[in-house]
Amino acid sequence: MGSGVSMTRWSEERKPRYLLLSIQPKFVTRILEERKYYEFRKKFPLHADRFVFYAASPVQKIVAIAERTHLLIGDLEYLWEETKEVAGISREEFEGYYAGSTHGVAVGLTEVKKMLCEMSLSEIGIERASQMYMYLDEEQWRRIEGNVCKVEWRV
């Protein structure tokens, strides 16, 4: 059994941090279909708690938003054992993504909301998305949040 730690959300009194995450379209689909409850990353800022999902090529649109329930941080065996039932990816996809890494982060997702109309990055003043993540300001978040509908999750 691997080793790791689980971290819950920060205090509600703290100002939320918004991140734009670039994700392969097939993984966004799995999230929206309630088949993927975790987003896996090699590195991740601990204080981020609200996310904008940007579906990478060929879609290249903002397609959904979500909030963080908790983070799992640890070695790969720990991450897989803790998430495999709701990871939304196969063991092979997991190992392929983390090839060459010994540790990672699993971001627990909740409050997933799909965009009513998918948005381009230019609509929020961004020229191109980072491959990892990028911070958004409150104005960008408000523009995006005003264009979503609730996805009913059974969490």
Could you characterize what this model shows?
The protein has 155 residues and is of the alpha+beta class. The two termini are 26 Å apart. Strand 4 and strand 5 form a beta hairpin. Strands 1, 2, 3, 4, 5, 6, 7 and 8 form an eight-stranded mixed beta sheet that branches. The chain has helices at residues 25-32, 76-83, 91-97, 138-145; strands at residues 4-8, 18-23, 38-41, 50-55, 61-75, 103-119, 133-136, 148-150. Helix content is 20%, strand content 39%. The protein contains four helices and eight strands.
Number of discrete helical segments? 4
**Class of secondary structure makeup:** alpha+beta
SSE string: EEHEEEHHEEHE
Largest sheet: 8 strands, mixed
> What percent strand?
35-45%
Mean pLDDT: 89
Outline: globular
Overall number of strands: 8
Low-confidence stretches: 151-155
**Helicity, in percent?**
10-25%
Radius of gyration equals 15 Å
In a nutshell, what does this entry contain?
Helix content is 20%, strand content 39%.
